[in-house]
Amino acid sequence: MALIERLYHPELAFLPIGDLFTMSPKEAALACGLLHAKKVVPMHFGTFPALTGQPAELAELVKPLGAEVWTLAPGVKVNW
After folding, report:
1. Mean pLDDT on 6-33
2. C-alpha 54: how far from its chain's center?
3. Which tens digit of pLDDT belongs to each residue from 42-78?
4. For tag attachment on the chain, is the N or C end more exposed, with fewer CB atoms within 10 Å?
5. Spatial separation of the C-alpha atoms in residues 60 and 69, rounded to whole Å
6. Considering the entire predicted model, what is its pTM?
7. Residue 9 and residue 3: Cα distance in Å, rounded?
8. What's the CA gap between 77 and 18, in Å, rounded?
9. What is the 3 state secondary structure string of the chain?
10. How large is the greatest C-alpha to C-alpha distance in the chain, in angstroms?
């Protein structure tokens, strides 16, 4: 993550938070800090019971970093 930040300086990161074969919200928050991303879209969560990570948990963890969490809902159009 630090290498990606150093090379590309991303402002937006799509990070997995499901916590089964992917990062948990805690690990995603650490990745967000390493990336210095200001906006984070959580992914790979909530599609079946084993994926326990929640966007609200990620949002709390990245507050000290000044990052904003954009949670997308399946099938909902987003106008950025």
Report:
1. 97
2. 10
3. 999 988 999 999 999 999 999 999 999 999 887 788 7
4. C
5. 9
6. 0.91
7. 9
8. 22
9. CHHHHHHHCCCEEEEECCCCCCCCHHHHHHHHHHHCCCEEEEECCCCCCCCCCCHHHHHHHHHHHCCEECCCCCCCCCCC
10. 37
Cα three-residue angle 24-72-80, rounded to 5 degrees: 125
What single letter denotes the amino acid at residue 70? W
CA 48, CA 55: separation in Å to the nearest integer?
Answer: 15
For residue 40, give Cα distances in angstroms to 1, 49, 56, 62, 71: 14, 23, 12, 9, 8
Amino acid identity, position 68: E
